[in-house]
Design a protein that fits this description.
Two copies of one chain form a homodimer. By secondary structure, the first copy, chain A, is of the alpha+beta class. Chain A has two domains: about 140 residues, 60s Ribosomal Protein L30, Chain: A (2-Layer Sandwich), CATH 3.30.1330.10; about 170 residues, PurM-like C-terminal domain (Phosphoribosyl-aminoimidazole Synthetase, Chain A, domain 2), CATH 3.90.650. The first copy, chain A, has eleven helices and 13 strands. Chain A is globular and about 55 Å long.
């Protein structure tokens, strides 16, 4: 399903960095431009506005033969909400543009908006603008999401320090398993048998995690407002790729304890029945839309206590190391090996 | 060249209105959502933020066999700057997303950004974010532009009153003529002869007006800050379509004096040599990115005096009438007829 290859992704990041260097300059009001989950602008006094944008292409980011238009809309909005969550911001407003093939039924466009708005309603986000045009080939969807934080108060990718602990919310790999269940069910008889071996509640849980992800908005605001996290990112590319982003931006290394990565019972059951490593699914699966964050080790007890009190699942999965350490993974048998640099992306 | 048909455009507006009614609610901070050139949010105190977004598709909005990637980028940014101009706002920040076919040379992507930034530099606009992804078919470009005005101070489409005069900046129809020169030069021998009959400076002027339009940012801010205009819109669809938007939003009619529509000498010469009506080119040609605005009749002398002093070309072309009057056009011979309801769009 990896039709957007890792190679392409790396070129893309290089392109963005080139553009950032070439065109982005320091501006007084601009708190954060290219290179984070959202662009941030400090308004006159007590507010920072956060802007994030995504362009989704049919056949690249979503496949309308697998997912409904409603689900595509929902997941597109949720992906952007997740970026806002990773800033510790309150999502506020949405602008959305569509390029629509002439043959596309308008009922499905409406379904797509329904999905967008379903995601937005959960977080009280309002649609404030957009554009609609024709497309000669495939549906394209562009989303800009605007959020706010108090002035001078946001979570960035570049704040991780050596010695900080590394945490994730929720469980990882579920969305990838859910996608596999949805797509393999269409293509292969043998895997359809496997699918039936998986209990119905497990299957529903995993498919739901893929089709109905939930951006960790409340968790992001908590980490930001309580000044607990030093850096944060949302898990859209997979733990491997997103941890790399934190390490690059913070100029640090990391040691990941593979045995501590939180895997759901359903994901573990799916992996077992399909000869997969659940940890591998967490590292490269992507689209879990959980938060990956770092925090000083002295705050561990506070984080765990407050998370419990609020009903958030938060797991410590490693430690920030010096830059020269690189990113290493420790297995349950105590062996250590470098984290592979690839992450791959699939339909979303 | 009208590959996006009028029919499609009308469906599109109906769709936007449906969506607006369905999803947009009144929000305290939201000054203007769907249905104007930009969405406006009042920040904590002295500032309103303006957001406008466009999604441009290869083969629909631009044709890379006619226009360079640099020119596509420039014109895409300028189209959004023009929306900000029509609000009377100061353009500030740009977010841009691209979906790129795998075969697309990265040098051309760079050219496209060069074009975007060339337009932005003219108005001191900073690139603050975006997204890059793969496309299976064609290049797609999404732009979000953010501008500001003082709080409670902006130009909308719905402020025109009966008796107001109707004005435009600059000259109309040039961009359409320029596009014709660019595209016909590629396809037809007979029109190539016609093209050669047109003086070189005329040809250069028209082609430049198409490839290098200039959003009327200064004029928009002047009209807004000096409290001269009651309503404004930028001319992207053609005078006919955009005047209709003003009339619909303001619930008024209009009387247009066709003889007063400002036509450049070059456009007039082009029209003569090609058997076209220059007024028709102004009404339906589109992409002039001039401003169309209304103002109380008592302000006419002030507007003309201040425009002269600032070096802005401003022409009074008609009068706002009651809604039941409809939109009528008066010819130089004194006859009056209803304005046709179509406007068409072409490559941009």
């Amino acid at each position: 399903m990896a039709i957007r290859k890792a190679k392409h992704t790396i070129q893309e990041f290089a392109l963005i960095r080139t553009i950032a260097r070439r065109f982005a300059r320091r501006v007084s009001r601009l708190v954060r431009g290219i290179g984070d989950d959202a662009a941030v602008i400090a308004a006159s006094r007590p507010i920072w506005w956060h802007f994030t944008t995504d362009l989704l292409a049919e056949g690249v980011h979503f496949d309308l033969s697998v997912a409904s238009a409603e689900s595509v809309g929902y997941r597109a909005a949720m992906a952007n909400l997740s970026d806002i969550a990773a800033m510790g911001a309150v999502p506020r407003y949405l602008l959305t543009s569509l390029a629509i093939p002439k043959s596309f039924p308008s009922a499905r466009i409406f379904d797509l908006y329904e999905g967008l708005m379903r995601a937005c309603r959960i977080h009280d986000v309002r649609l404030i603008g957009g554009d609609t045009s024709a497309s000669k080939a495939g549906l394209f969807l562009s989303i800009t999401l605007i959020g706010t934080t108090s002035a001078s108060r946001a979570l960035f990718r570049n704040g991780a320090h050596v010695g900080d602990h590394i945490y994730v919310t929720g469980t990882l790999g579920d969305s990838f398993a859910g996608l596999q269940l949805l797509t393999r069910g269409k293509t292969s008889r043998s895997t359809r048998r496997n699918r039936h071996q998986l209990g119905r509640s497990h299957r529903q849980f995993l498919v739901n995690r893929h089709l109905r992800p939930m951006a960790r908005i409340a968790e992001g605001q908590w980490l930001n407002n309580a000044r607990l996290a030093t850096a944060a990112i949302d898990l859209s590319d997979g733990l491997s790729g997103d941890l790399q982003h934190i390490c690059e931006e913070s100029r640090v290394g990391a040691e990941l304890d593979l045995g501590k990565i939180p895997i759901s019972t359903a994901c573990r059951a799916y992996a077992e029945r399909n000869g997969l490593q659940p940890v591998q699914m967490a590292l490269t699966g992507g689209e879990d839309y959980e938060l990956l964050f770092t925090a000083p080790s002295r705050k561990q007890a506070t984080i765990e206590r407050q998370a419990r009190a609020r009903g958030y699942r938060v797991t410590c999965i490693g430690t920030i190391r010096p830059h020269r350490f690189g990113i290493q993974m420790t297995s349950s048998d105590g062996t250590m090996r470098p984290m592979p640099v690839t992450s791959y992306e699939h339909f979303r």
